[in-house]
Amino acid sequence: MKKLTKNFINTGLFVGVSGIFIILFLSGRQQTWTADSKVAPPLTVRWTVVKVSDGDTITVRQTANEKVKVRLACIDAPETSKKGQAGQEWGEESTKNLQKLVNEANNEVMVSIVDTDRYGRKVAEVFTSVNGGEKSLNEEQLTSGNAYLYRQYLKNCPNAEVFQRAEEIAAAKRIGVWSGNYEKPWDFRKRIKNQQ
Q: Would you state the CATH architecture of domain 46-195?
């Protein structure tokens, strides 16, 4: 019985110590996230923005040169003109504001992916780090009146309450999309689709 107990203790120690070494080894490895990954990249991964498509969509590149299209989560910006189709009022302004925010961060962003949409884009909260402070691009687009809160998808947003307050600020100030009675982007897309 003593021999069996001693073997059990030795085996337990071996498994425990081995487990610690495996965890330490794996935590020291840097993982490269790909567009097909099921797990979101850690927030510390920096991406280079290679294109701002409109007020809520960017294309980013990781060091491996893989480009990923990212849709800013929980916001919906006015549509810009595409493929000969006229855009919405504030569409260009919204795009310019997002480009300005990206430029201020030297085109470097951090992403926290929450979903993948039906077009294959990664849906994410996107952050920049400027002068030691972190800034949410999603929140900035809302606060400045350059996007609407996309309530239909709000349940997927970790910072839903922050985004709701950001939109309330813009609406109270009557700035950007809140400065008039403009058609919402989702209504605009539906109307255009029905016309085709």
A: Beta Barrel (2.40)
Residue spans per domain, the chain:
46-195
Distance CA 149, CA 165 (A): 10
Catalytic residue (one of 46, 66, 71, 108) = 71
Question: Is the whole model's pTM more than 0.85, yes or no?
Answer: no
* Tokens linked to 34: 């790909």
Largest CA-CA distance found in the chain, in angstroms, rounded: 84
pLDDT band at 16 (very low <50, low <70, confident <90, very high): very low
Q: How many residues does the chain have?
A: 196
Judge whether 121 counts as a catalytic residue: yes
Instruction: Please tell me the predicted confidence (pLDDT) of residue 164.
Output: 97
Residue 191 among the catalytic residues = no
Q: How far apart are CA 93 and CA 95, in angstroms?
A: 5
